[in-house]
Amino acid sequence: MIKKAVFPVAGFGTRMLPATKSIPKELLNIVNKPLIHYAVMEAIAAGIEEIIFVTANHKRALDDYFDDNFQLNQALKEAGKTDLYHEMKDIAGRVHPIFVRQKEQKGLGHAILQAASVINNEPFVVILPDDIFYSKESVTKQLVDRFATVQKSIVGLQSVAPEKTHLYGVVSIDSDEGNGLYKLNDMVEKPKVNPPSNKAIVGRYVLTPDVMDVLASIKPGVGGEIQLTDAILKVCQDDAVYGMEYEGRRFDCGNKEGLLRASIAFARDYPDTLSALIDETKDLHNNHR
Ligand code: G1P
Description:
The chain is of the alpha/beta class. The protein is 38% helix and 25% strand. The protein has 11 helices and 13 strands.
């Protein structure tokens, strides 16, 4: 069973400035919950018990989000707002967070490497909380369930438009193993030309711990950064790595359009926001006629 998940959360969130000048991008909102809340609940639904946040000094608000706020709890209790009180206790009580610092911004691979001693030679999940999924079943759970049979690293895959491949890690497929699972034979981080396919790696990974040794020794790749994709490629060459197309819709919430689309998608789950959404959309259509 996989019990640990690494959440790299040290980035500046420059694509969402000025909102992210004083608020961590992971605390940007969809309806009434921050992005990190959805991502953590997805991990919990996959059986994850320990969450390792790879963080930085400007991200302290994240620690607070997963801690008890004693004064708030007390005030909610006294005001008889028991549902809210229990909801707040639930957020703080369901996760065992561990915070490790990434002192320099040297890339995603470097961020993951900071969690090596906590991972301690166990398979683990990586969740990039910019990527938020609207799905029936937790996307992390879908990956973890497949890992139980293959026992090799698995990356989440999504087909993207050819003009978007340069934004992703892009894989090459060796064989189709059925039910959305592929054995991989190559992957390239942000290919400028000749992408090996249109299947892009999304922000969900199940990794075997050998990737940590590779991360400790590889040279910087694209953008002068230690790239997670490069380390997974080495594991692929030395052993085996799979890719999996998941059930669900992905939203890149690190940019305006993705965050807005996610807000609309998730608004469907809240009856009060759904009616507001329908009203506003009607207005929008009318104004554009
Ligand atoms: C990272 C990874 C990339 C992956 C992407 C998914 O890139 O390096 O391989 O395809 O996440 O969101 P970033 O978006 O952080 O530049």
